[in-house]
Specification:
Radius of gyration: 16 Å
Number of helices: 5
Largest sheet: 6 strands, mixed
CATH topology: Nucleoside Triphosphate Pyrophosphohydrolase
Order of helices and strands: HEEEEEHEEEEHEHEEH
CATH class: Alpha Beta
Helix content: 10-25%
Structural class: alpha+beta
Shape: globular
CATH architecture: Alpha-Beta Complex
Strand content: 25-35%
Distance between the termini: 19 Å
Length: 215
């Protein structure tokens, strides 16, 4: 359908990759058709043993390597390494504006693509503890999202170093038994809003891709 979610996704005003303003990193937002007018997105559950982002839910992605032609190539490479997604089967629609992450120093480029959704994905045991594929309409259901104080999400030993302002909150999404929060939840919140779907509000100053819905 011409005004369906896939068409709206294609119509987003994607940005040029631009220059990096921090440690270069990229993530892949890989969408596939799910039902008559819905899309699912590939998320990964990080192992609890990882040095960073332990136990968190995120998009496939990571640091840009010297051998990567650009951020898009890095996101596709990481998705292949982490979940076995064939880069040749991904139709890259474009990139969103970079998102700087103060806590890690990374400057993250979100790359948006479509794939068939039919090939089998498999997680790299060293980097992925599980693969989730929630649909956008599930994420948009008010029963599946909201806001949560960061004091309930960030381990106590990390709170002191983060210097969080009083009352700081994060958008959150409930996917199966998991809670998606932080950077990933912020990107999903902004994306749902651009596609005209309900989403949790992004707190002032929250990192988000700086683009706008099509007119």
């Amino acid at each position: 359908m011409s005004d369906g979610l896939a068409a709206r996704l294609r119509a987003l005003p994607f940005a040029a990759e631009g220059a990096w303003n921090g440690l270069p990193a990229a993530v892949l937002l890989a969408f596939s058709q799910a039902g008559d007018d819905d899309l699912d997105v590939v998320l990964v559950h990080r192992p609890a043993s990882m040095r960073t982002h332990a136990g968190q839910i995120g998009f496939p992605g990571g640091a840009v390597d010297s051998g990567d032609a650009d951020g898009t190539a890095a996101a596709l490479r990481e998705a292949r390494e982490e979940v076995g997604l064939d880069p040749g089967g991904v139709e890259v629609l474009g990139t969103l504006d970079h998102i700087p992450l103060e806590v890690s120093g990374f400057d993250v480029l979100p790359v948006v693509g479509l794939w068939s959704g039919r090939e089998s994905l498999r997680g790299n045991p060293g980097e992925v503890d599980g693969i989730l594929r929630p649909t956008l309409r599930h994420l948009a259901d008010p029963a599946s999202h909201g806001l949560m104080p960061l004091t309930e999400l960030v381990p106590p030993e990390r709170l002191a170093s983060r210097r969080l302002p009083p009352g700081a909150v994060s958008p959150v999404f409930r996917v199966e038994e998991h809670l998606v929060w932080g950077f990933t939840a912020g990107v999903l919140s902004a994306l749902l809003g651009w596609l005209g779907l309900p989403s949790p509000p992004l707190p002032p100053g929250w990192p988000r891709p700086g683009t706008a819905p099509p007119a």
